[in-house]
Amino acid sequence: MGGDFGPHAILPASLFALERHPYLTILLIGEIEQLESLLAARRVTDSVRSRLKILPSGQSVSMDDKPSSAIRHRQDSSMSLAVKAVAENQADACVSAGNTGALMAFGRLVLRMLPGIDRPAIIASVPTLSGHCYMLDLGANVDCSAEHLLQFAIMSSVMVEAVDNNAGPTVGLLNVGEEAIKGNEQVRLANKLLCEQPGLNYIGYVEGNDVFAGKADIVVCDGFVGNVTLKSSEGLARLISNRVRQSFSRTLYRRCLALLARPVLKEMQAQMDPSRLNGATLLGLQGIVMKSHGSADQKCFGYALDRAIAEVLQNVPDKISERLSGYLPSVGD
Amino acid sequence: MGGDFGPHAILPASLFALERHPYLTILLIGEIEQLESLLAARRVTDSVRSRLKILPSGQSVSMDDKPSSAIRHRQDSSMSLAVKAVAENQADACVSAGNTGALMAFGRLVLRMLPGIDRPAIIASVPTLSGHCYMLDLGANVDCSAEHLLQFAIMSSVMVEAVDNNAGPTVGLLNVGEEAIKGNEQVRLANKLLCEQPGLNYIGYVEGNDVFAGKADIVVCDGFVGNVTLKSSEGLARLISNRVRQSFSRTLYRRCLALLARPVLKEMQAQMDPSRLNGATLLGLQGIVMKSHGSADQKCFGYALDRAIAEVLQNVPDKISERLSGYLPSVGD
Fold first, then answer.
1. How confident is the model over B287-316, as pLDDT tens digits?
2. 45-74 in B: which are within 8 Å (CB) of A?
3. pLDDT tens digit string along A211-263?
4. Which of A33, A202, A284, B257 is positioned for an S-S bond with A117, CB 3.0–4.6 A?
5. CA–CA gap between residue B66 and residue B223 (Å, rounded)
6. Those residues with Cβ within 8 angstroms of residue B98's Cβ, 6 or more apart along the chain or in another chain
7. Does the beta-carbon distance from A240 to B240 stay under 8 Å?
8. What's A203's domain CATH number?
9. B257 lies in which domain range?
10. What are the beta bridge partners of residue A96?
């Protein structure tokens, strides 16, 4: 029920995912009448219909609900039931376009953290000159200690290794300069911890411009910096996209050019579309929870579904848990 | 002598600025032989030559010099002498493309802070959907208290009011969400101080995407977040610019289109060029110090010169000082 379009994006995205993945089953949780009526309006094959289950839910979590209030008052929301379905092994992953804070809170409460991990982190991929990299935390934790940044690095290394089949992904720590004296205290301390951590392919500090240059496979930072970086990039992409449209509509000649160049321009706009890499993982939970952008349309929500499927196939939380017992001496104490 | 191109960019930019501004005088400080030989290779009118003075300097500050070491060992560098020229009223402003940390250190040591201001902040303009806005701090202070953020807001309001002739510019505080409960402790406390501060046109929290949307005339944040945001934006602009080139060179048809659309594409590339808004002010000093991007070429360095001239004409430090005595009760105590 979450996001700007709710079932209007999520239902068709689910049907399309079921067509693409013949072994996939989707459990749609939400207002049953709305889901049934949206479904009735669509032509669906028997194979797809047989793998789509609908589960009714109570009042939804709104975008304005505080996480604490969602936990108290929205226990039968679609979001809460979806996370519970993962905890009770009815589902292998939960995908939601709803309130991030509430999703995180339900994740921590219902699924719990992996042993050795204090806090979940939001990780997503961003485009780079050479392909893509991953960045975390994107907003789950506004204040992070050096130890948290270390945990983020370890978890994400395992995840990227599994999902991208990239053995020993490079990890960079986001800072304002490459010199060791720069940066604030947490970052300098985290740098020390990361250098000492065996089994990590840590490459040191990276700066803001290195993120999109693809200098590291994984960029680690606190949730405040990560969130601002991600959102400002979305804003800049929108600005540039807008300027391109203006440039190509200033004169009649240019409008004709724009017509001729339409496929190129569409391709460019698509590449600038930040939703293309939709799907942020709530890393560190004992289960897979995927957050879709709230503004995700059908196509965009589909990307988040695909990411969740990839993590299920790679069994990401189990792999992290396994590696954590080797990495973190305190695990299991 | 600073920046990637040194006098090769700075000398021609200076000559061009002297041509554009008939009342301008420029004091070029650097290696005298290099400057004289570069100058000899150019055709310069008598009017321009009469307003260009050259002052010899000792060994330059390198990009790797630590600020503390620059202050100890580079007292006769071009950077140090340029800042001293402002302190001794030989110049109205100093413009440098050199080491930011060292420039800041010389500024604090030689020019000193404005009364009531604890730390300098780096402020620069960034493009927005509606024109441009200003963002600070862009890297002078990696840790900022709420009081520092308040001082940044006050200083920048006065500066923007003067330079842009914008009475009561809107001020936003950068945060991860618009809800008051979000953000870290300093930001929440700064929000409180900003709300209580008379004479500020404070509009509350803004998010990363609001920066380029132009939601506020001034975006206040700590130097870590500001630096990462600015540099990651430069990285993204470069990425998009690169993708545009690739898109337009994939097939013969597209390469022909690119030829036809050359003026539009050049215009777009220019708009995506982050150097276009070159020139960051070191705000809070008792004098005007302008930092040019290290990678600035001739044209780009010229923008920084123009910004410095605008601040001189508007007498920005004096105006800030004047307003501070009204804003900050502790001033003059």
1. 999 999 888 889 999 999 999 999 999 888
2. 64, 66
3. 999 999 999 999 999 999 998 988 888 888 888 888 888 888 888 888 888 88
4. A284
5. 18
6. B1, B2, B3, B60, B61, B63, B78, B79, B294
7. yes
8. 3.40.718.10
9. 123-276
10. A291
